[in-house]
Design brief:
heterodimer, A: mainly alpha, 3 helices, B: 447 residues, mainly alpha, 17 helices
C-alpha cells in the first residue's frame, strides 16, 4: 500500500476547499470549505507521517492542524453571531 | 535561555495585563501605557540579545522595528473604554504573533504566528459598522492559512523535518517535487499577510476600516510576513527554484498591478491601499535580493515604508478626506496635517532627501548586485508611473480652502500627532543618513 491514494484525495479536498472559499459568498459556505480543506490537510499529514517520516514532529504538526481547525471554526461562528446580532438590532420587529 | 523566552512572554503577559486593567480601571490610558511598555521592553530585550545572534529567533533590529511599528499603531486605537482596552490587548497579541512569524525557526512557528496575526487582525477589524466586511477577510485568511498549512505538511513529507534550517539543506533525490510544491504554497499563503493579494476586509469602501486595524495589517503584519519570506527563501533555493527571479518577479508584478489600480482610483483610502500593495512589491523585491549576512538595507527599507505609510494613513484619517478632491485646500485648513501628508507621500514616492528614497535605493541596489537589472528597470519605471497619482493627490492640497478647519476630538488629535511624528521621522531619517552616506557601506554608492 502506498501513500499516493491518500495524498491524491488530500490534494483534491484542499483544491476543492480553496476554490470554494474564493467563490462562495456566504459565511457558512466559507466555514464548510475550510473544514473540508483542513480535513484534506489532516489526511495528507497522517499519510506522510505513516509512509514517509514517522517522527514525533509529524504528530505535532497533525495536532496543530486539529487545533487550527477548531480555532478557525470558532472565529467563523463568532462572526456569524456578530452578524446575527447586528441584523436583529437593525430590524427589531422581524426578530422572533 | 531566559532571554529566548523573555521577549515573547513579555508581549502576551502585557496583553493579559492590559485586558485586566481595562476591566478595573475606567481610563483607557493605563492599558495603552502597559502595552507601550511591553512593546518597548520586548524591543530592548531583543537588542540585549545582540551578542547571541538570533537568540530570540529574530534579528534584534527587526524585532525593534516590529515593536516600534506596533507602538506607533497604539494611538490609532479608538472606541469605548472597555473596547479600547481589548483592542490594545489585541494589538499586543497580534504583535506577539508577528514576532513569532518573523523569527520562525520551524514551519510550526510560522503557522502559529500566522494564525495569531490573522485572528488579531480580524478582531481589530470588527466595529459597529463593519461586521459584514469581515466575511471577505475571513475567507481570504482561511484560504491563505489552508495553503500555509498544506505547504508545511508537504515540506515535512519531503524532508522529514519542520525546521526551516534543515529544510534549506540540499534536497534528496526524488523529494524535489514535494519540496517545490510545499515552498510555493508557503509563499502563496504568506502573500496574504504580506498584502500581495487584495485584502478586502480593511479596504471596503462602504465603511472605512478602523485606523488601528489598517496600521496593524498594512504595517506590522506585512513586515512580519516579509521577514518570514526572508526565512522561506533558502527553502525555495533548496527546491531548485531561483528565489530572486520568482520572488522578485512576483514583487514587480504586484507593484505594477497596485500602481495601475491606483491610477484609476477615486476613493482615497482605497488609493492608499493600492499604494501599500505597490510597496509590498518593492519590499518583496528587496526580500528576494537581500544578503543573508547583512539584512540592514532591507530592514531600513522596511522602516522607511512603515513610517511613511503609517503617517500617510493617519494624516488621511485626521483630515477625514474620503473622495478625490476633498483634500483641496488642506494646507490652509490644517497645515500640520497637510505637511505631514505631503512628506509621507513624497517619502513613499521615493523622492530625496526623505527616508523612502534611501529605502528604495537600498532595495534596488541589492537587486542590481544580485544581477537582476531588468527587474530594477521595471521597478523604477513603476516609480515614475506612480508619480502621476502622487501629484494628482498632492497638488489640490495647495489650492484655495475647501476643507473645514479642524476642531479635533481627543482621538482625532492622537491620530494627527501620529501623522506628524511619522513625517518628522521620515524627514529626520532621510536627512541624517544623506549627511552620513559614506559611513553606511550599503548607501555609499549614492554619494
Amino acid at each position: 500500500m502506498s501513500a499516493l491514494p491518500y495524498l491524491l484525495l488530500g490534494a483534491a479536498l484542499v483544491a476543492l476547499a480553496i476554490w470554494s472559499a474564493l467563490r462562495r459568498r456566504s459565511l457558512i459556505g466559507h466555514m464548510l470549505a475550510l473544514e473540508v480543506g483542513l480535513g484534506g490537510v489532516l489526511l495528507t499529514s497522517a499519510a506522510l507521517w505513516h509512509f514517509a517520516a514517522p517522527r514525533p514532529e509529524g504528530l505535532l504538526l497533525a495536532l496543530l492542524v486539529l487545533t487550527l481547525m477548531a480555532l478557525q471554526l470558532t472565529l467563523g461562528l463568532a462572526i456569524l453571531v456578530a452578524l446575527h446580532r447586528q441584523r436583529r438590532e437593525a430590524q427589531p420587529g422581524e426578530s422572533s | 535561555m531566559p532571554l529566548q523566552v523573555y521577549p515573547y512572554s513579555l508581549l502576551w503577559v502585557g496583553a493579559l495585563a492590559a485586558l485586566l486593567l481595562g476591566l478595573w480601571l475606567r481610563r483607557p490610558i493605563w492599558p495603552a501605557l502597559v502595552c507601550a511598555l511591553a512593546l518597548l521592553g520586548t524591543g530592548l530585550a531583543g537588542l540585549r540579545a545582540r551578542s547571541a545572534p538570533d537568540a530570540v529567533g529574530l534579528q534584534p533590529t527587526a524585532l525593534l522595528l516590529l515593536c516600534a511599528a506596533a507602538i506607533l499603531c497604539l494611538p490609532l486605537v479608538q472606541g469605548g473604554r472597555r473596547g479600547a482596552a481589548a483592542r490594545y490587548a489585541l494589538l499586543l497579541l497580534g504583535s506577539f504573533g508577528a514576532v513569532l512569524m518573523a523569527g520562525a525557526q520551524a514551519v510550526t512557528d510560522l503557522l502559529l504566528g500566522a494564525v495569531i496575526v490573522a485572528t488579531a487582525g480580524l478582531a481589530l477589524l470588527t466595529d459597529d459598522e463593519g461586521v459584514a466586511r469581515l466575511i471577505g477577510h475571513y475567507a481570504l485568511a482561511a484560504a491563505a492559512l489552508l495553503a500555509l498549512i498544506y505547504g508545511s505538511v508537504l515540506l515535512y513529507g519531503a524532508a522529514g523535518t519542520t525546521s526551516l534550517v534543515a529544510l534549506a539543506a540540499p534536497a534528496t533525490a526524488g523529494s524535489e517535487p514535494l519540496l517545490r510544491l510545499g515552498s510555493a504554497l508557503l509563499v502563496l499563503g504568506l502573500s496574504f499577510w504580506a498584502c500581495l493579494v487584495p485584502v478586502q476586509g480593511w479596504s471596503a469602501r462602504a465603511a472605512p476600516a478602523p485606523a488601528a486595524a489598517v496600521g496593524f495589517i498594512a504595517v506590522v503584519a506585512k513586515l512580519a510576513a516579509l521577514l518570514a519570506l526572508l526565512r522561506v527563501r533558502p527553502v525555495l533555493a533548496a527546491a531548485g527554484v531561483d528565489p530572486v527571479l520568482v520572488l522578485g518577479g512576483l514583487g514587480v508584478a504586484v507593484t505594477t498591478w497596485g500602481n495601475v489600480r491606483a491610477l484609476r482610483e477615486q476613493d482615497l483610502p482605497a488609493l492608499l491601499r493600492h499604494i501599500g500593495t505597490a510597496h509590498s512589491g518593492y519590499l518583496l523585491l528587496g526580500v528576494a535580493a537581500a544578503q543573508a549576512r547583512d539584512p540592514a538595507p532591507l530592514l531600513f527599507a522596511f522602516g522607511a515604508y512603515a513610517v511613511a505609510y503609517l503617517g500617510a494613513w493617519s494624516a488621511l484619517a485626521a483630515c477625514r478626506c474620503r473622495r478625490h478632491g476633498e483634500q483641496r485646500g488642506l494646507l490652509g485648513a490644517q497645515p500640520a496635517v497637510a505637511v505631514a501628508l505631503l512628506l509621507c507621500l513624497l517619502s513613499l514616492a521615493g523622492l530625496p532627501p526623505l527616508a523612502g528614497f534611501l529605502g528604495l535605493f537600498a532595495v534596488f541596489s541589492s537587486a542590481m548586485a544580485a544581477g537582476y537589472g531588468l527587474l530594477v528597470i521595471l521597478a523604477v519605471a513603476n516609480l515614475a508611473l506612480a508619480l502621476i497619482y502622487y501629484l494628482r493627490l498632492l497638488l489640490p492640497i495647495f489650492l484655495p480652502t475647501e476643507v473645514a478647519s479642524d476642531a479635533s476630538t481627543g482621538a482625532a488629535s492622537a491620530v494627527r500627532w501620529v501623522s506628524i511624528a511619522c513625517a518628522a521621522c521620515a524627514l529626520a531619517l532621510g536627512i541624517t543618513l544623506t549627511l552620513n552616506l559614506n559611513e553606511l557601506p550599503w548607501l555609499a554608492v549614492v554619494s
